[in-house]
């Protein structure tokens, strides 16, 4: 009798163990994507966005028609989920895709890129307070080589531009002082050269991930501190590269044309991928240097989208998959379960 009871408990324990493993494997990821009103401009890819106050501004890009590039700009009012066309880049500014953008001192800045024939290094300042639709003014050219597929970000009253492609992959970086209107070269990013990387800013520091160097997707990750003008290497973003056994690195975030945004002190990467249009979404904790997978981006898989955050609310828009160009807009709620009815 005792033996029978023992066998019964062994069998029951085994069943429960397998059930627990199955529950872990089937556990749903957290995060809810909600579709907003569509972008009112032409569907496009490889555009730019910057945020000034309560508004985001989206423009430039490529729409796939006869190698046409774009110079129009649109303002997004998140509070009312509405769009309004504002001043386009002036005629003397080439239409472009693959440019960079940042905001500083209450103004937006757009420069570099590709016009279909030439790599560019011109830079333009947008002042939303001038006129009914804002006004563009040309500023000093970017001091590095003409390029596209670089990254740009703003911290305080400075803009930062680096990496990209000028015929070769690059790792140099430059800072723009919005107060003086001048550029200066700063310390280059460590590790790999790269193009088509992703960047977000948390607590006054920039984090750079992903990108491609020649035919290899880079896996090294870096944090930039503007106060010390120094780069610190973070954990690599691919499987089996970290010696810390407490770190679950059974994944790979390596790829290109990924977009980045921030919310509630965390950074996020989504869409893009390693040679394909993707939809995976990952959350980064800057305190632990750990990544956690979240619910996949709910729109169509895509590359070369754009992302921005307004008042701590993130948005992902536009992009392309093969010959299809998107104009949909999505917001993300990382603490909610996915609701397909939203």
From TrEMBL:
<keyword id="KW-0732">Signal</keyword>
<protein>
    <submittedName>
        <fullName>Galactose oxidase-like protein</fullName>
    </submittedName>
</protein>
<dbReference type="Pfam" id="PF01344">
    <property type="entry name" value="Kelch_1"/>
</dbReference>
<dbReference type="InterPro" id="IPR006652">
    <property type="entry name" value="Kelch_1"/>
</dbReference>
<dbReference type="Pfam" id="PF24681">
    <property type="entry name" value="Kelch_KLHDC2_KLHL20_DRC7"/>
</dbReference>
<keyword id="KW-0677">Repeat</keyword>
<feature type="signal peptide">
    <location>
        <begin position="1"/>
        <end position="19"/>
    </location>
</feature>
<dbReference type="InterPro" id="IPR015915">
    <property type="entry name" value="Kelch-typ_b-propeller"/>
</dbReference>
<keyword id="KW-0880">Kelch repeat</keyword>
